[in-house]
């Protein structure tokens, strides 16, 4: 039975006209009932916005025709799924309606749900993987965190530190955002709350030196994870690129393969502005994973789908609330289930 569940999860298997089936036993117990409830609540505004608009669009209509698809296209774009991704989804729905002879508008939400789940599967999104485990990772595993001021970068680092330490991991933080007022103090406060070591040189100091010393401390204390904060805003893209490149070079003098991960934090509540930020940062540095925050305060949850599709970079974490554990490992099946839950 466990092997069968694993296969279902791997391929996101669904019977026709049915919602995705999930296995909650054994290996995948880390996605608890409490986390699912938190995810449902965090995506409630986005769900209500999308469903409400779809319901209004199909009132009095019995078939999925061109007018219904035009309405659906507008709904997805207004939900910040993005134009390119929306066009792709609509094309798939058109093909599926023609192929499978779907005609009833009552089936539209299930078709849409299935196509979004498939799209996320294709876009390297993580699924049923506890990203707070480090057994098979380099030690220390160095994460460089980037993103604009206000996206929730420092808060995300604090929550990551908390969740790593909760699993018994040794963590070191590097207060590398040395240009923003109170950024260092804010990270030190999070470090105290999480019970982890914070390396800081104070304000207006060299962030690359902070990163070097944080990695050095991580090696000395045999830490599992080192997380480096970086400046959220520099004057030009060239400055940003140069600063991040310098931080990498300095870390690599001590640990040649650092950083092992570059995590871009985006504010999901800003909708398409988050997409613009992603474009700029992916040009400036080699982003390997995404964290999309503040989804609980917005109806723009569709931006997760658009960003995943455009950049083909794994969405690793999503923020769905203020509590420490409300930074969740992104699970595409659970995300789609919450977004379309009736």
Automatic annotation (TrEMBL):
<dbReference type="InterPro" id="IPR000897">
    <property type="entry name" value="SRP54_GTPase_dom"/>
</dbReference>
<feature type="domain" description="SRP54-type proteins GTP-binding">
    <location>
        <begin position="314"/>
        <end position="327"/>
    </location>
</feature>
<dbReference type="GO" id="GO:0005886">
    <property type="term" value="C:plasma membrane"/>
</dbReference>
<keyword id="KW-0963">Cytoplasm</keyword>
<dbReference type="GO" id="GO:0003924">
    <property type="term" value="F:GTPase activity"/>
</dbReference>
<keyword id="KW-0342">GTP-binding</keyword>
<dbReference type="GO" id="GO:0006614">
    <property type="term" value="P:SRP-dependent cotranslational protein targeting to membrane"/>
</dbReference>
<comment type="similarity">
    <text>Belongs to the GTP-binding SRP family. FtsY subfamily.</text>
</comment>
<keyword id="KW-0997">Cell inner membrane</keyword>
<dbReference type="InterPro" id="IPR013822">
    <property type="entry name" value="Signal_recog_particl_SRP54_hlx"/>
</dbReference>
<keyword id="KW-1003">Cell membrane</keyword>
<dbReference type="Pfam" id="PF00448">
    <property type="entry name" value="SRP54"/>
</dbReference>
<dbReference type="InterPro" id="IPR036225">
    <property type="entry name" value="SRP/SRP_N"/>
</dbReference>
<comment type="function">
    <text>Involved in targeting and insertion of nascent membrane proteins into the cytoplasmic membrane. Acts as a receptor for the complex formed by the signal recognition particle (SRP) and the ribosome-nascent chain (RNC).</text>
</comment>
<dbReference type="InterPro" id="IPR027417">
    <property type="entry name" value="P-loop_NTPase"/>
</dbReference>
<dbReference type="InterPro" id="IPR042101">
    <property type="entry name" value="SRP54_N_sf"/>
</dbReference>
<dbReference type="GO" id="GO:0005525">
    <property type="term" value="F:GTP binding"/>
</dbReference>
<keyword id="KW-0472">Membrane</keyword>
<feature type="binding site">
    <location>
        <begin position="147"/>
        <end position="154"/>
    </location>
    <ligand>
        <name>GTP</name>
    </ligand>
</feature>
<dbReference type="GO" id="GO:0005047">
    <property type="term" value="F:signal recognition particle binding"/>
</dbReference>
<keyword id="KW-0675">Receptor</keyword>
<keyword id="KW-0547">Nucleotide-binding</keyword>
<keyword id="KW-0378">Hydrolase</keyword>
<feature type="binding site">
    <location>
        <begin position="229"/>
        <end position="233"/>
    </location>
    <ligand>
        <name>GTP</name>
    </ligand>
</feature>
<comment type="subunit">
    <text>Part of the signal recognition particle protein translocation system, which is composed of SRP and FtsY.</text>
</comment>
<dbReference type="Pfam" id="PF02881">
    <property type="entry name" value="SRP54_N"/>
</dbReference>
<feature type="binding site">
    <location>
        <begin position="293"/>
        <end position="296"/>
    </location>
    <ligand>
        <name>GTP</name>
    </ligand>
</feature>
<protein>
    <recommendedName>
        <fullName>Signal recognition particle receptor FtsY</fullName>
        <ecNumber>3.6.5.4</ecNumber>
    </recommendedName>
</protein>
<dbReference type="InterPro" id="IPR004390">
    <property type="entry name" value="SR_rcpt_FtsY"/>
</dbReference>
<dbReference type="GO" id="GO:0005737">
    <property type="term" value="C:cytoplasm"/>
</dbReference>
<dbReference type="InterPro" id="IPR003593">
    <property type="entry name" value="AAA+_ATPase"/>
</dbReference>
């Amino acid at each position: 039975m466990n092997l069968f569940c694993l296969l279902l999860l791997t391929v996101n298997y669904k019977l026709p006209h049915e919602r995705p089936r999930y296995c909650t036993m054994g290996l995948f117990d880390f996605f608890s009932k409490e986390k699912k409830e938190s995810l449902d609540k965090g995506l409630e505004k986005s769900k209500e916005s999308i469903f409400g608009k779809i319901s209004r669009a199909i009132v009095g209509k019995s078939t999925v025709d061109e007018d219904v698809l035009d309405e659906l296209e507008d709904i997805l774009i207004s939900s910040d799924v993005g134009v390119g991704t929306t066009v792709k989804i609509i094309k798939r729905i058109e093909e599926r309606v023609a192929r499978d002879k779907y005609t009833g508008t009552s089936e539209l939400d299930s078709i849409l749900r299935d196509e979004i789940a498939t799209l996320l599967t294709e876009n390297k999104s993580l699924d049923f993987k506890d990203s707070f485990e480090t057994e098979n990772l380099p030690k220390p595993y160095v994460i460089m965190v980037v993103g604009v001021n206000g996206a929730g970068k420092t808060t995300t680092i604090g929550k990551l530190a908390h969740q790593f330490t909760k699993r018994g991991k040794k963590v070191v933080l590097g207060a590398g955002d040395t240009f923003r007022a109170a950024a260092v103090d804010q990270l030190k406060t999070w470090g105290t709350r999480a019970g982890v070591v914070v390396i800081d040189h104070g304000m207006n100091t060299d962030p690359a030196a902070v990163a070097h010393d944080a990695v050095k401390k991580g090696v000395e204390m045999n830490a599992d994870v080192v997380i480096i904060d970086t400046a959220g805003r520099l004057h030009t893209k060239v400055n940003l690129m140069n600063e991040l490149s310098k931080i990498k070079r300095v870390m690599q003098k001590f640990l040649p393969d650092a950083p092992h991960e570059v995590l871009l934090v985006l504010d999901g509540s800003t909708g398409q502005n988050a997409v613009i930020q992603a474009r700029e940062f992916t040009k400036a540095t080699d982003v390997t994973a995404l964290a999309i925050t503040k989804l609980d305060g917005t109806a723009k949850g569709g931006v997760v789908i658009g960003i995943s599709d455009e950049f083909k970079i794994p969405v690793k974490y999503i923020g769905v609330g203020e509590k420490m554990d409300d930074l969740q490992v992104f699970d595409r099946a659970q995300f789609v289930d919450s977004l379309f839950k009736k």
